[in-house]
Amino acid sequence: MKDHSGSDLARKNAAVKACELVEDGMAVGLGTGSTTAYAIRELGRRVDEGLDIVGVPTSYASEALAIECNIPLSTLAECPELDIDIDGADQVDSSLNVIKGGGAAHTKEKIVSCSSKMFAVVIDGNKLKDVLNRGVPIEVLPYARRLVEKKIAGLGGKCTVRTGSGKDGPTISDNGNFIMDCDFGVINKPAALAEALAQIPGLVEHGIFTNADFVYVGYEDRVERLERKK
Question: What is this protein's function per UniProt (predicted)?
């Protein structure tokens, strides 16, 4: 039997289910990525039906999609505390630690998630693992690249500058910085690694998130809601 846990339908199911948390009057963080795009479209559909919300996007891409979907937009300067943030992930472990940054937007995504009363992550079933074991994206000031590489090596990791698909040169974030991907193998202690990465000068932000309240895991025939243990 073919596994469809990574299908478009699975991603859509997770995103639509998470949108049920959104109510009238809320300020909503709008994440970035293919799964979150389904959430933005669902919120746009509900806005057309009368839902009264404002969205705070985490990237130019999510901003453009929200505008296309007629979602009124705001900023963290106007709405410093959001009611909920809905975003995708590259991988989630059994303790609901998250790796993000495949779309190079993790700096703004982390700021928005930490500005929200509730952080809901939406993924398909293929992204749920027992432990984190994929590369950790980081955003780095170009001036600090060599220093960051040295510090990462001291933590047992190896990092490479991400290059854009079909173009020469490094991938540049919306903030004008390099995106690098760091391989640490299996990450048994995500919170400790997150703290160590946060201490590196010139490393703007890393892609380990330890603040998810809920994770909605989508499959073609159902959605599982996981809640962080307090």
Answer: Catalyzes the reversible conversion of ribose-5-phosphate to ribulose 5-phosphate.
